[in-house]
Amino acid sequence: MHAAMGFKEVGVYHDVGYKFGKWHDVGWYELSLAAHVPEPPEPVPFPELAGSSPVKAAFARAAGLVKPS
User: Fold this and answer.
1) Distance CA 65, CA 58 (A)
2) Which residues, including other chains, have CB under 8 Å from residue 51's CB and lie 6 or more apart?
3) What is the pLDDT of residue 39?
4) pLDDT tens digit sequence for 35-55
5) pLDDT digits over 20-34, tens only?
6) Is the pTM of this model over 0.90?
7) Ramachandran region, residue 18 (left: φ > 0; alpha: ψ -120 to 50; beta: rest)
8) Which residue from 35, 37, 58, 64 has the highest number of Cβ atoms inside 10 Å of its Cβ?
């Protein structure tokens, strides 16, 4: 499934998970989300972003996904 979605296998931990009476491997995969930038801009501190429209919209969408227990 991961390969079909474009992920590349970067490593395998052999026999690290025991379940249903046998040992299993755990695979690690990666997917580049954006092109490599040789000189990225400085990060913006979160307090400076917190009031921005995109951040407020993201929090509003996330709040709709949380189900109170």
Assistant:
1) 11
2) none
3) 94
4) 999 999 999 888 888 778 888
5) 999 999 999 999 988
6) no
7) beta
8) 58
Backbone angles phi, psi at 30, to 5 degrees: -135, 155
Give the pLDDT confidence score for residue 2 in this predicted structure: 86
Q: Helices (DSSP H) in 1-52: which residue ranges? A: 46-49
Buried (b) or exposed (e) across 30-59, using 16+ Cβ within 10 A?
eeeeeeeeeeeeeeeeeeeeeeeeeeeeee
Residue 21 three-state SS: coil
Distance CA 32, CA 28 (A): 14
Identify residue 38 by its one-letter amino acid code: P
CA 69 – CA 54 distance, rounded (Å): 28
